[in-house]
Amino acid sequence: MDTIETIHIEECTLADAGRPRTYAQISQLARRLLDAFALWMQKRESRWTLRYLTDNELRDIGLTRGEAVDEVNKSFFWD
After folding, report:
1. Which end of the chain, N or C, is less surrounded by CB atoms within 10 Å?
2. 56 lies in which domain range?
3. DSSP label at 76?
4. CB–CB of 32/40 below 8 Å?
5. Residues 6+ apart with CB under 8 A from 64
6. Can you tell me the distance from the alpha carbon of 11 to that of 25, in angstroms, rounded to the nearest whole number?
7. Are the beta carbons of 55 and 67 closer than 8 angstroms?
8. Looking at the domain assignment, is residue 79 inside a domain?
9. The YjiS-like domain covers which part of the protein (predicted)?
10. Closest Cα to residue 47, out of 9, 18, 74?
11. Within-domain flag for 61
12. Is residue 21 part of a domain?
């Protein structure tokens, strides 16, 4: 091809507070949601790992058993 074709982003009909969103905006929102979910899963896995560490292993990383239990018991929405 001799020319470069441009991609036209059409506005979709999904509305957010009365404003139409473009496909690029929806894709960006989906990416942010997936990134947030991946971060939540990583934190969840790390907290579950703390549950099985021995007192010596916890001491090596600078935590007490009580601090580890507090971390494991944090809410789903806790940062």
Report:
1. N
2. 39-79
3. T
4. no
5. 58
6. 10
7. no
8. yes
9. 33-68
10. 74
11. yes
12. no
How distant, in Å, are the alpha carbons of 37, 43, 48, 55, 66 from that of 51?
21, 13, 5, 10, 11
Q: What is the mean pLDDT of residues 2-29?
A: 59
Q: What is the per-residue pLDDT across 22-64, written as a single tens digit (0 to 9) for each?
A: 767 778 888 899 999 998 888 888 888 888 999 999 999 999 9
Count of domains observed in the chain: 1
What the block records as the tokens of 75 is: 């809410």
Q: Is residue 67 one of the residues assigned to a domain? A: yes
Distances (CA, A) of 57 to 27, 70, 72, 76: 42, 17, 16, 25
78 against 55, higher pLDDT: 55
How many CA atoms, within 13 angstroms, populate the side-chain half-sphere of residue 16?
Answer: 8
Dist. CA 39–CA 32, nearest whole Å: 11
